Amino acid sequence: MAEEKSLNFIEEIIEEDLRAGKYKSIVTRFPPEPNGYLHIGHATAICLNFGLSKKYGGYTNLRFDDTNPVTEETEYVDSIKEDVKWLGAEWKNELYASDYFEQLYQFAVTLIKKGYAYVDDLTAEEIAATKGSHTEPGSDSPHRNRSVEENLQLFADMRAGRYADGEKVLRARIDMAHQNLLMRDPLMYRIRHAHHHRTGDTWCIYPMYDFAHGQSDSIEHVTHSICTLEFVPHRELYDWFIEKLEIFPSHQYEFARRNLTYTVMSKRKLKQLVEEKHVDGWDDPRMPTISGMRRRGYTPEAFQDFCDRVGIAKRENLIDVGLLEFCVREHLNKIALRRMVVFDPLKVVITNYDRENEFLEGENNPEDEDGGMRELPFGRELYIEQEDFMENPPKKFFRLFPGGMVRLKFAYIIRCDEVVKDDSGKVTELRCTYFPESRSGHDTSGIQVKGTLHWVSATNNVTAEVRLYERLFKVEDPSSEEGDFKDYINPDSLHTVTTAYAEPALRNARMDDRFQFLRKGYFTLDNKDTYHRLVFNRTVGLKDAWGKEQKK
RNA sequence: UGAGCUAUGGUGUAACGGUAGCACUGCAGAUUUUGAUUCUGCCUGUUAAGGUUCGAAUCCUUAUAGCUCAACCA
């Protein structure tokens, strides 16, 4: 029995269009403005647009909406392409709104000729003042009824650079009393004597978003132009231009942008975090940017899964970041190489171990039969985690305590015989005995233990720096709290373990490797600071039933 | 206080006039050489009030709540 996969509302629209024969295949686009870095919100838009065209047999263009020369830079174009590529999205064409400047200019001329556009001399303030309000109609500009010839000449003069910034604009001639404020003679072109990252100084007039986006969609024959809900009021204008221009009718559909708990998503706020040094940069592993999450060790597969699970709709939402963490754990659990790393060492001396150091074997990944094994040096002196020993353990403590026994993962069962302390009473060393016949995989000892600990040889290991990240904010929705969102920054979002002791296999860690440090979480090499030393970022922790139990 | 959009467990999303389902979270248990993974089970929901209908989460009305809109930004 075939399982009916339910469709989201956009898929329903597309299937209906396809069924009705409106299109044979679909074209979507991902249209970032190259003025900043991509974040998770963009990632969901990418998954949506590229996912749709893949599902329904079509393609997706990557189009840079570069109509504002003063905010846009090539640097951003490059980082955006890198991020999109990393997510696994393959665009059909790399396009730029600026590629269409000449065509857009001709569109504007067409509208002028049809009497649908005019050059206005009003200042920005005057235009705002005559715009009216939600309850009051606007009033016509005194230049609204210039002749077509005059408009044509003036617009050509604008292009030719005869005017200074702000001196003139081209407006659509619609209705200054329109219910929709966006339809009250919106601006189509403004003068900007500025260098453009691609067209250089060729142009000094630039189209506004509303006169560039829909037309670009149309030029590319985009069938389904998907954007976020705040553009709903723009749809009327979008359709108006296409109708008056009589060009390919692209259609705009809107969905609700995704919000995540314990973070902020607006460019303005992210920028503040970077500029005021609350984080290390746009790619700080705590940032919700794609570059930040990549650096932290998230995988494209996890994002894809996340997008699929979250779905798509039109209502406001605040998605539990726990879902993203679940997705990344689920993927990493399958692919991560298991390794042992001790963050806070407590020396263990095995008093009855008097032979040569030996090498034991440990599987790389119990989830992967073909994952292979690696060697683990074992010896008389080892490190275990400080927190894995308690002199006076509470109930249900499965780890080491005086007289207690645990298994060392991949190795032997040991018993704690003696606790060595320094003058201040701090435990500095445990003296233990091991049971030779309890060797992992060959255990004939018959001893049952509750706990299994990770460990590292004290004489054969490699040191590394480990960075542990917590949530960047203390509250679920920093933006909706009283006062400044920055008041809710979690001051302890980064813990650095400068010297952790790792098993030797980690010496050969590669940048795209994913690791699970046993009982510690998932880690990956930091792509910036790993140079002459190893620096690992914790992507996400393991589920921690014991930690939860303790909090009770 | 004009217009538009939206309202389903704690969270996200299905059900398209006919049994409110799935996932995450949470809780309980089993297995476990990671207190991980895996497996079982459980808790929790249609914003409200009317109306139409044999039957309403779904259609209608009203109310309520949230979001969006008056940049020469996108």
Averaged pLDDT: 96
- Could you tell me the CATH topology label of the largest domain: Rossmann fold
Give the C-level CATH assignment of the largest domain.
Alpha Beta
Strand segment count:
25
Give the termini distance in whole angstroms: 46 Å
Which band does the percent of strand residues land in? Answer: 15-25%
The helix-and-strand class reads alpha/beta
The best one-word shape is elongated
Main sheet? 7 strands, mixed
Tally of discrete structural domains: 3
Helix content: 25-40%
Secondary structure tally, helices: 13
Q: Strand arrangement, largest sheet?
A: 10-23-24-25-21-22-11
Going by CATH, the homologous superfamily of the largest domain would be HUPs
Parts with pLDDT < 50 across at least 5 consecutive residues: none
Q: Which value, in Å, is the CA radius of gyration?
A: 31 Å
